[in-house]
UniProtKB/TrEMBL annotation:
Superkingdom of the organism of origin: Bacteria
Source organism of the structure: Streptomyces racemochromogenes
Protein name per Swiss-Prot or TrEMBL: Helix-turn-helix domain-containing protein
Domain PucR C-terminal helix-turn-helix: residue ranges: 262-317
Pfam families hit by this protein: GGDEF_2, HTH_30
InterPro entries xrefs: CdaR-like_regulators, CdaR_GGDEF, PucR_C-HTH_dom, PucR_C-HTH_sf
């Protein structure tokens, strides 16, 4: 083409430039670097000049050819990146949800540094602003934890898959995520489980821990599923738990303002380690006012917060109320 342009002064034809774009796409698919390809085009241009003064049409044609070639190369690269992102997203979804062909999943996992024979722990970070693929904060986290984890976003949350033996990674991930997004975020960590199926199990535990943290009012910044195992036990028989809540705490509805204020008092008192002065401080009450409320709870429920046996029943019922969102949501 350059030879004809040099001899006739014509411009490159559209089909010639289209051919360069197609060649650029094939070069990108073959993995060639753009700088080497541009260098080869410029070398061909120098050869076409053959040591004589370069006529303007020749240089213009070379410029158009290089532009067309690089456009094709970049178009193919963008397509490859989109395809790779789609394949990675599909793999992450299959991995976290425990679906898909195990053989294919294992092959893809190996490509991303996951070994089916290892044990894995999953941590899930949630923030006020949803996480998105390609955002600067996600990139910084990935670089900070490079080599130890797989990071991905799912449903606006950031998911970290780490080797189970790397016990410090989830805590580091929580600190980094909090530093990126500021206060108010929460990270939940599942328990370590073996194999790729264990990733899905740990992920499910982390999501349940997030849900429990919301219902129980935990502020974090880090909650561990291993420390919340008693709560799934409580919720396993929802009817029995509802019966306990209504039987023990139902009479609080006769109090001034309904059950809410007295239940809040009881919850804060338990959270303060049953220390009356600390609970009063947290509620903004005098010790005398708090003592009166505890006495009111005793008289309405026939359960004395000062009695160890009654205290256990009251605390279990109060936890059940938080898990079932009672009294905001009526129970059958």
């Amino acid at each position: 083409m350059l030879g004809e342009v040099s001899a006739t002064g014509r411009r490159p034809a559209r089909e010639e430039l289209d051919a360069r774009r197609a060649l650029g796409e094939r070069a990108a698919e073959a993995g060639h670097g753009l700088s080497a390809l541009v260098g080869a085009h410029l070398a061909a241009t120098r050869a076409a000049l053959a040591g004589r003064a370069a006529p303007d049409p020749l240089l213009h044609a070379a410029e158009q050819a290089v532009d067309a070639f690089t456009e094709g190369w970049e178009r193919a690269r963008r397509l490859a990146v989109r395809q790779e992102e789609a394949a990675r997203r599909e793999f992450v979804d299959d991995l976290l949800l425990g679906r898909g062909d195990p053989g294919r999943l294992g092959e893809r996992a190996e490509d991303l540094g996951l070994r089916p024979a290892r044990t894995y722990t999953v941590a899930v970070a949630r923030a006020a602003t949803p996480y998105a693929d390609g955002s600067p904060g996600v990139g910084r986290l990935e670089r900070a934890l490079e080599g130890a984890v797989l990071l991905a976003t799912k449903e606006g949350r950031l998911v970290c898959v780490a080797p189970g033996e790397e016990e410090g990674v989830p805590a580091r991930f929580a600190r980094r995520a909090r530093a990126e997004r500021g206060p108010g975020g929460l990270v939940a960590v599942g328990r370590p489980h073996p194999g790729l199926a264990g990733v899905a199990a740990s992920y499910a535990e982390a999501l349940r821990a997030l849900d429990l943290a919301d219902r129980l009012g935990f502020e974090g910044p880090l909650v561990r599923a291993a420390e919340l195992l008693v709560f799934p036990v409580l919720t396993r028989d929802r009817d029995a738990l509802a019966d306990l809540v209504l039987s023990v705490l139902g009479p609080l509805r006769a109090g001034r303002g309904g059950a809410g204020p007295l239940l809040d008092t009881l919850t804060v008192w338990f959270d303060a380690g049953c220390v009356t002065a600390e609970a009063a401080r947290r509620l903004g009450l005098s010790v005398r006012a708090l003592t009166y409320r505890l006495e009111r709870i005793r008289s309405l429920t026939a359960h004395d917060p000062g009695n160890p046996t009654h205290r256990y029943t009251l605390q279990t019922a109060a936890l059940g109320a938080r898990l079932l969102n009672w009294p905001a949501e009526p129970l059958p």
